[in-house]
Amino acid sequence: MLLENIIPPIPSEVIMPLAGFTIAEGKLSFIGVILSGVVGSILGALPWYYLGKNWGEKKLRKWIEWRGQWLTLSVEDLERSQEWFNRYGNWVVLLGRVIPGIRTYISIPAGLENMQLFSFLVYSTVGTTLWISFLTIIGYWLGDNYTLVKQFLSPISTLVIVILLITFCIWFYTRKKR
Predict the structure, then answer these.
(1) pLDDT band for position 107 (50/70/90)?
(2) What are 12-64's pLDDT values in tens digits?
(3) Does the pTM exceed 0.90?
(4) What pLDDT, in 10s, does the model give residues 67-92?
(5) What's the CA gap between 170 and 67, in Å, rounded?
(6) Which residue has the higher pLDDT, 123 or 160?
(7) C-alpha torsion 39→43→45→46, nearest 10
(8) Which residues cross the membrane (predicted)?
(9) What integer pLDDT is reported at residue 19 of this predicted model?
(10) Integer CA distances (angstroms), 144 to 12, 20, 167, 173, in order
């Protein structure tokens, strides 16, 4: 789970249900799997948090002014994201930790916005615990059929990715049109 957070293509949707299956076989303990998954995830989120925190707003703002057009980013986009994060910061982190594709990267704006480390850890831990427990329980319940997890979660993950892609395309199109 540490690597899943540092290198996002590694899917927790496969790792944790497999651990749940192993619990069902009596080879691992439920509490041990959950604790290991949560600790690994939080440790993997910390480098991203510190990247945002150490990079700082000035450096990011300068980079956006210099190279932001490559990603169709503007300083106004940065300001809007800061306002949104400042308004919903703690909840953004908690909910972001259970959304595929966002789970890892939510740590960067948390650091950038100087979210207190303690709050970041608490909200990240709650969101991560919910996600890891959910996946582990699914693997446990499915037992020998844990390979069905991919079939069960694939439509959900695909839907989230499609929504994100559509949103990005609309955003990109409107930015280019302007």
Answers:
(1) confident
(2) 777 888 888 888 888 889 999 999 999 999 999 998 899 888 888 888 788 77
(3) no
(4) 767 656 577 766 766 777 778 878 88
(5) 21
(6) 123
(7) 140
(8) 28-51, 120-142, 154-173
(9) 87
(10) 18, 10, 38, 46
Find out whether 71 and 103 touch, Cβ atoms under 8 Å.
no
Which residues, 6+ apart, have CB-to-CB distance to 51 below 8 Å? 107, 108, 111
CA separation for the pair 47, 8 (Å, rounded): 13
Identity of the amino acid at 31: I
In the structure encoding, which two tokens stand for residue 53, read together? 């925190």
